């Protein structure tokens, strides 16, 4: 069996990249790995094609330990501790209280955006465009289809293998299972069980009780292993976890914003508590930012207002803040094709699941879509990185802003108001999830 995001020989290549990004000197360790016959190039899909010999796997574990032991370069502009983060933030914005129920639009929009991106996850921009042109769907304005897709195009750009059977227009029957929806459901259960005073250990226990190990990926898979290995927080986020600044925590935190309408600081604090189980630095800031986007979307009237409010929870000199600002600036300056070219020129060196490139896309799509659902989620997918996750976050924001009717029946009807899940209890009704979310909503400002 070749597990993704798990074998030491595969983790090492990713850790060399992540450690270098943290200012560690990795040259000597990289040279030792290459001299022994190891490949320093990370596997795009999380697992190299051939198993390593026992000796190479043992060496990989040793080198991972050595990289873990090297202290990262000081980065006062990117702290991990909540109080240190708080000290860098500007005053929290004074946003209005919610005037109407938006939770149903938020859940529906998140599901529809995720569904749009599912079949083309991991397919690059050029492949997505070729598929759309070949099926008469360019520019993207509805769910993907395989009807009319020439065989050579399908072979050149194969659909996401887990998703094609449930997420193409001709076979959609409700929202299929996806980690981008599993995690919000889990966050809802977390709040119902522990309230807003939950701890990171509570998050870990809830994972063990409810989350199948086969349905966690990248940083969450590494953290899950570390939980089972009895490593304490925050070691769960760092030990042999080269994915600690990827997008995984960002996709988990919308609910924390939806239950904190207009209080972006409170939403960010809940997200930080959750994210530190598996992520550090910008991986955590991405989660805080997504929660703040969701919080602001429950009370604001435009995507620009949402983006302005959410930036207030991100350390201003962090790489995450720069990515968000870059995405917004590009949206104001150019057409979509040129804009996506610029995003890829800036962040194309990163793995497609990294938080920085995807945060830039989310910011770009929200700014470019100007509060319209179809254009916003379509741009998020056309960028071609973590298509379902980026479009889910964008869809949740615009869905809250516009409501279910504003999303449009062409996007909502195929969902049939249902979301499948691998969590205990099985399929959920979107209306029930929205009602539970609204019941947890609270006011007040976090300091």
UniProtKB/TrEMBL annotation:
Domain of life: Bacteria
Annotated Gene3D superfamilies: ADP-ribosylation/Crystallin J1
Record-listed Mg(2+) binding positions: 386, 388-389
Pfam family, one: ADP_ribosyl_GH
Keywords: Hydrolase, Magnesium, Metal-binding
GO molecular function, one term: metal ion binding
Matches recorded under InterPro entries: Ribosyl_crysJ1, Ribosyl_crysJ1_sf
Cofactor: Mg(2+)
Cofactor note: Binds 2 magnesium ions per subunit.
Name of the molecule in the record: ADP-ribosylglycohydrolase
């Amino acid at each position: 069996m070749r597990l993704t995001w798990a074998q030491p020989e595969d983790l090492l290549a990713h850790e060399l990249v992540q450690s270098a990004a943290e200012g560690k000197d990795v040259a000597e360790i990289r040279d030792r790995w290459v001299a022994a016959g190891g490949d320093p190039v990370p596997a795009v899909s999380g697992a190299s094609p051939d198993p390593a010999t026992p000796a190479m796997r043992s060496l990989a574990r040793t080198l991972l330990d050595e990289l873990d032991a090297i202290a990262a370069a000081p980065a006062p502009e990117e702290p991990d501790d909540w109080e240190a983060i708080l000290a860098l933030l500007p005053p929290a914005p004074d946003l209005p209280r919610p005037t109407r129920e938006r939770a149903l639009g938020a859940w529906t929009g998140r599901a529809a955006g995720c569904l749009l991106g599912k079949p083309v996850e991991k397919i690059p921009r050029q492949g997505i465009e070729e598929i759309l042109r070949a099926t008469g769907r360019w520019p993207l304005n509805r769910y993907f289809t395989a009807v009319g897709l020439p065989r050579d195009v399908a072979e050149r750009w194969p659909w996401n293998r887990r998703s094609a059977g449930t997420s193409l227009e001709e076979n959609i029957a409700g929202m299929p299972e996806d980690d981008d929806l599993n995690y919000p459901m889990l966050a809802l259960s977390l709040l119902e069980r522990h309230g807003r005073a939950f701890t990171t250990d509570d998050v870990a226990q809830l994972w063990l009780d409810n989350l199948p190990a086969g349905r966690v990926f990248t940083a969450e898979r590494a953290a899950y292993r570390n939980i089972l290995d009895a490593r304490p927080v925050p070691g769960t986020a760092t030990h042999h976890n080269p994915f600690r600044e990827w997008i995984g925590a960002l996709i988990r935190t919308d609910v924390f914003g939806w239950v904190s309408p207009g209080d972006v600081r409170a939403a960010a604090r809940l997200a930080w508590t959750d994210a530190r189980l598996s992520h550090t630095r910008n991986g955590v800031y991405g989660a805080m930012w997504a929660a703040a986007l969701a919080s602001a979307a429950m009370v604001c009237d435009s995507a620009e207002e949402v983006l302005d409010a959410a930036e207030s929870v991100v350390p201003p000199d962090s790489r995450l803040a720069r990515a968000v600002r870059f995405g917004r600036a590009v949206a104001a300056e150019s057409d979509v094709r040129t804009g996506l070219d610029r995003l890829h020129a800036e962040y194309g060196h990163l793995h497609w699941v990294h938080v920085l490139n995807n945060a830039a896309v989310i910011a770009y799509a929200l700014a470019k879509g100007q509060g319209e659902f179809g254009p916003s989620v379509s741009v998020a997918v056309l960028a071609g990185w973590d298509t379902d996750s980026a479009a889910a976050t964008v869809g949740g924001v615009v869905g809250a802003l516009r409501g279910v009717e504003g999303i449009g029946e062409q996007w909502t009807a195929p969902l049939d108001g249902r979301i499948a899940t691998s969590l205990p209890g099985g399929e959920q009704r979107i209306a029930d999830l929205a009602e539970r979310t609204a019941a947890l909503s609270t006011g007040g400002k976090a300091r």
